[in-house]
Amino acid sequence: MSQTAVIVEKKETMSQQAIEKTEKPNSLWKRNSSWLIQTAIIIAPFILFGIFLTFYNVNPIELYRSMVATTFGSLYGFGEVLLKATPFVLTGLAAALPAKAGLVNVGGEGQLAIGALFATWFAVFYLDSMPAVIGIPIMLLAGALGGAAWASVVALLKVRGRLNETITSVLLNYVAVFIVGFFVHGMLKDPNSFNWPFSPEIAYSLRLPVINGTRLHIGFVIAIILAVVVWYVLAKTRLGYRIRVLGSNRLAAERAGMSINKMYFWVLLAAGALAGIAGMIEIAGIEGRLRTTVGTNFGYLGFLAAMMAWNHPLRLMATAFLLGMISVAGNKLEIFSGLPSSSVNILMALVLFFILGSGKLVKR
Amino acid sequence: MIADILTGAIRSGTSVMLASQGELVSERAGVINLGTEGSMLCGALGGFAVTVWSGNPWLGTLAGGICGLLISLIHAFLVLSCGANQLATGLTIMFFGMGVTAFFGKGFVSQQIVGFNPVPIPLLADIPYLGKILFNHDPLTYLSILLVPVLWYVIFRTRLGVILRAAGEREDVLFASGINPKLVRYLAVLTGGFLAGIGGVQLAVAYTHSWVENMVAGRGVVAVALVIFASWKPIKAMIGAYLFGAAQALQLTVQQQGMAISPYFLFMVPYVLTLVALLIVERRKQSQTPEALGKVLAGSG
């Protein structure tokens, strides 16, 4: 028994060396050139989208300039971008963490929605008169629990039913929105809402504290902490190492005696919890009450942010920030030129197309 | 009431059915395309827009098909020429489709069209009970029903079908016989996009006669799932699509009858049904998976 353990140990250290070899570029130049290519890949879609905008009589240079100016020009503007970026970091982690284990989780959308539902449920029914110090952490846990519970459906279908997690998680996103719809039309409906489908407002004490002079709440601190934690676990711990082995070579992981299904299961649950926290933050930080539209597209945008960051949790914060800037710019675009704010989704998809297409060029 | 549901099953299942037939061709060649959702959306909007402008739904159908095809071209290029991850690319295309159609569709939201309407087939439509269910549909639905046996014949009984399946199973065999497997895959993906686009047209121009933002609502993803459910067989995919359609028709019928079931439960039924169906067939389908596709689904493609 102990002998096999030793062998397993040996195999792990061997494959660890192998991983390190492939991960570290051997010269400084190589590292720099790959950075250059990556930057070029991010810039190219902006140029393309700029050309597209000129057809609609929008000056792209002016738009990009004002995008930068509003972001860095005032505390309020900077706060707005951080506010937008916060859920993208969390749903991005919900995609990046499973990606490291070789899973494609696109369920961030639904996991966020169910997390928001759980958080609201607890806030409305149990935490109404709680002080913030107790209420907010419980609400956070409820959100994480909701997200994890929803992800467990995908995880069970993957582990027990051997169903591909990409397809099931996308399908379940639609179901999740209907579940939220069911509750805000039924048990969670605000009795004073004149029949509008939304939940009662959560207690004021449960709202996340806001930084003076902005709308920014402390949710972004939670997001940053979680990103660092996920990075630390992935990069520095034994567990993270095992996850990476599983993602880069499933066969090696199997040979090393890891119980793959168990890892898939827990990784997906952790991802769901992260997205669920994003849902809680949306409720406690911005919305104040549950609607069916909570976090629409945030799951997909988080997935996008994760891909742009090559699934690296720390780089993810930068890409989420960039997507936050683009989202804020989208609102401006709508106000100043009458183009729908969703047009920036085209820009975001273009960015991803370039990243996907460049897979062969860049060493990951 | 049952007749209503069955009629509705065909009427609302046809868009999914067309898309799943297209996806089936693509997956037989070894490429899974979650961008089917995007192709359907662009097909729906393209078809609707051209129908509004020209007043001719057939022109709209052609335009919708071409829109779907162009979207799938992005998928084919990124996956086949750039070696991108199939699932991630497909999702991006889905997102792209939502963005593009929200952008260009804004002006079409409240537009009205005549579009396609049910045309009863003389004599056959007079058969009691069955006539109403089977022979009182729009022209696109009739065509889509004809498509299924044709597709079955092509895939399993012709040289073209062998080439298609070889691209998904053993591309070196294809290579050895002097055919470029990449080209075959390109054409398969484009065919899939074209059919998905027409599926979108059926939804917008024949079924709902309107354009609503994100109106496809996951039907493209369901189509992809159905192909797996159907073990890559056209006739089974058709049955699966009508099952999905029946679940949707059930929801409408129950609402009309005024039963006290939350509509949100009924909205879920088609999606949950798809998942359950996938789960049931999963056990026995392993050996039938096209080999190249199996790699993608297992996460190493």
Q: How does this model look, in words?
A:
The complex is a heterodimer of chains A (364) and B (301). With 364 residues, chain A is mainly α. Chain A contains 14 helices and no strands. In chain A, helix 5 packs across helix 11 and helix 8 packs antiparallel against helix 13. The relative contact order of chain A is 0.18. Chain B has 301 residues and is mainly α. Chain B has one domain: ABC transporter involved in vitamin B12 uptake, BtuC. In chain B, 74% of the residues lie in helices and 1% in strands. A two-stranded antiparallel sheet of chain B has the order 1-2. In chain B, helix 6 packs across helix 7 and helix 10 crosses helix 11. Chain B is globular and about 60 Å long. In chain B, 53% of the residues are buried. The model of chain B has no long low-confidence stretch (mean pLDDT 88).
Key features of this structure:
heterodimer; A: 364 residues; mainly alpha; ABC transporter involved in vitamin B12 uptake, BtuC; 14 helices; 0% strand; disordered N terminus; B: 301 residues; two-stranded antiparallel sheet; 13 helices; 74% helix; 1% strand; globular
